[in-house]
Design goal:
Helix content is about 20%, strand content about 25%. It is α/β, with parallel strands linked by helices and about 625 residues long. The strands form seven sheets. Strands 17-15-14-13-12-11-2-19 form an eight-stranded parallel sheet. Strands 1-22-23-26 form a four-stranded antiparallel sheet, with no helix packed on it.
Length: about 625
């Protein structure tokens, strides 16, 4: 008589694995990526509306000067558009206009663009484009035939106070029919699909958050929820970053997990509402990694100085002095997620190069308030290597740079292992908040004498080989049944020997058959393939209409559901054994003979993504 195992998902609870199987090499590394910040000069252009990445307004008059420096005395609406144009300012002779600029347009798509807006007024685009002309009362068009070494300036020359110019959009001809429903550039999305998660650190303008001047720390008080980045604001390049609603939309549309950075000056009300927004709007099955700010020990960032002034100087001991800020922010998220903590991983950032700082902060934290410790995973060029390459100057080759980078790998790896020892002592998992290459000159920001070789390596097989070697070392750090999460530092960024060629791609329109992307290809090669973490089961009330039946004698797997579902059979090491090619109702599957052992059924539909365990 056949023995039938029935598993009803609605009665399953959290099930921890009884063993820690070793993952195959192909499953050990899971890559996400940091997204580049939004700047008018950037080459990572995620939105089809180019107005979203314009620089903030500056004032102009008819003097011929680039800027009149009257912007702080002008009047604006809550969406950032001027109440009227021109504006007359007391004591100032010339009427004032507003302008914005895209300082570099190398990443823009060639072709025809349309400029739309609401209201009554006039707009002038006087540099950088061809065939600029008015189409009707509320639109213009222009053409781009060349983007090299060009900028674009847009000026609002007239705006009616009763019906002011607002809601400006700049759309390429390819997206005129779809931009209202599809806000993300499809080229950008296609390149992003290789990643399993994204880190929104730069999207949220985490470094120097809410500071008008990056070097000002003595700003009044904290920021409440009502003052966050808003969806209807004319540009998303402000010091508050891209709105959270847009981050959530990307997660849901591309089925991505995400890493969220809590702003360092956010009030408890802000943090609580931020957590509630993500909890209510992120689709089921998506996971969040939550961190307080970014590199709060790094003195080049305003948050480090602000915390020192407000938390450390009053009490003394650094770095323990900023633990209360981390603790409080994570505790607020904990209270919001309450009995759903499995949906988030609470992160404690680590200073990879300074073990003592990381250890002291970790040991001061309440051990129950965080789940993981996150260092970086960079390899790069040391000061000694920089001196050697500098002596070679223009004679330096790609092979010279690769040799020096390879010689420094072990030192960087040793530093990572020291952070892992902290994780082990506290029984916390280790994940990486950013990493990849750090092939930059010393001091940072100076153009090296070996510029040509440093630029060339980013399109050469040498850096592909370096990445593969580095990833192989990282595999040795993975343990348990979950891949080691590695967040690549930068997604798309141009070649720049002075400030770093951080991107794994150079442009969203990069033709990989013409301009190679060896760093991007290395990630594809090493990305966890056909592997699903099987460390827990999480249930939901909407699971009640699914039933799993398995007969081990006949190897027959029966999935009963009233809704279309996608079924995956997974081994205990996370490798996919079987995947049905389409979503079907009341599915019946006969499996080939498989080895005895622990297996999992993953059931995915629009409501949930669950894993069931059976033998």
């Amino acid at each position: 008589m056949n023995r039938i195992f029935s598993i009803f998902l609605f009665i399953l609870h959290f099930v921890a694995l009884q063993s820690q199987p070793t993952l195959p090499d192909s499953c050990k590394l899971l890559f996400g990526t940091n997204l580049s910040g939004l700047f008018d000069w950037g080459t990572e252009l995620p939105f089809v509306d180019m107005m979203r990445n314009c620089r903030e307004w500056y004032s102009k008059d008819d003097s011929g000067e680039f800027e009149s420096r009257m912007i702080d005395r002008m009047q604006f609406r809550s969406d950032g558009y001027p109440t009227h144009i021109p504006q007359n300012i007391s004591g100032v002779t010339r009427p004032q206009f507003v302008a914005t600029i895209w300082g570099r347009i190398a990443g823009w798509q060639l072709g025809d663009y349309t400029v739309f807006y609401d209201g009554r007024g006039e707009i002038d685009i006087n540099v950088g484009v061809e065939n600029y002309r008015r189409l009707d009362a509320q639109s213009y068009s222009f053409r781009l035939t060349n983007t090299k070494d060009r900028e674009i300036q847009l000026i609002i020359t007239k705006s009616d106070s009763l019906n002011p110019v607002r809601n400006i959009k700049i759309i390429h001809q390819d997206y005129l029919q779809t931009y209202k429903e599809k806000i993300f550039n499809p080229n950008w999305l296609n390149y992003l699909r290789i990643f399993k998660s994204v880190r929104f650190m730069d999207w949220g303008h985490t470094n120097h958050w809410s500071q008008k001047d990056s070097w000002l720390w003595d700003l009044p008080g904290i920021v409440d929820w009502r003052d966050r980045a808003q969806l209807n604001y004319y540009t998303w390049t402000t010091n508050k970053g891209i709105p959270y609603e847009v981050m959530i939309r990307l997660m849901n549309e591309l089925d991505l997990d995400a890493w969220i950075c809590i702003p360092h000056r956010a009030s408890d009300d802000y943090i609580r509402n931020m957590a509630a927004l993500f909890k209510s709007n992120v689709e089921i099955g998506r996971h969040l990694y939550v961190e307080y700010s970014n590199e709060i020990w790094n003195w080049i960032f305003g948050q480090a100085v602000w915390l020192d002034e407000n938390f450390c100087k009053p009490v003394g001991t650094w770095p323990e002095c900023y633990v209360p800020a981390i603790q409080n922010a994570l505790d607020v998220w904990t209270s919001v997620y309450a009995n759903e903590l499995s949906k988030i991983t609470r992160i404690l950032g680590a200073f990879t190069g300074w073990y003592d700082v990381s250890n002291r902060v970790a040991m001061t934290m309440n051990a129950n308030s965080f789940d993981a410790i996150a260092p970086t995973y960079y390899f790069g060029i040391s000061e000694k290597s920089d001196s050697i390459l500098d002596e070679l100057g223009s004679r330096a080759t790609i092979a010279d740079i690769a040799r020096e980078a390879r010689l420094n790998m072990q030192l960087e790896f040793d530093r990572i292992q020291s952070i892992q020892s902290i994780c082990n002592s506290l029984q916390k998992k280790m994940i990486f908040y950013e990493g990849g290459h750090h092939l930059t000159a010393h001091p940072f920001g100076e153009l090296p004498s070996y510029e040509n070789a440093l630029n060339a390596i980013h399109r050469d097989s040498a850096i592909y080989n370096l990445y593969n070697e580095w990833f192989q070392k990282l595999r040795s750090l993975q343990n348990g049944n979950e891949p080691l999460l590695c967040m690549n530092f930068s997604f798309i960024y141009g070649i720049d020997a002075k400030y770093g060629s951080w991107g794994v791609l150079e442009s969203i329109y990069q033709d990989l058959t013409i301009i190679p992307a060896p760093k991007y290809n290395a990630i594809i090669k090493n990305q966890s393939k056909n592997c699903i973490p099987t460390n827990y089961i999480e249930t939901n009330k909407k699971d009640m209409n699914v039933e799993v039946l398995f007969d081990p004698n006949s190897n027959e797997l029966r999935i009963q559901s009233i809704r279309p579902i996608l079924i995956t059979l997974v081994s205990s090491t996370g490798q996919v054994i079987f995947l049905n090619p389409s979503k079907q109702n009341k599915s019946l599957f006969s499996l080939d003979v498989i080895p005895s052992g622990m297996y999992y059924v993953r059931i995915d539909n629009q409501f949930y993504s669950k894993i069931c365990k059976f033998k």
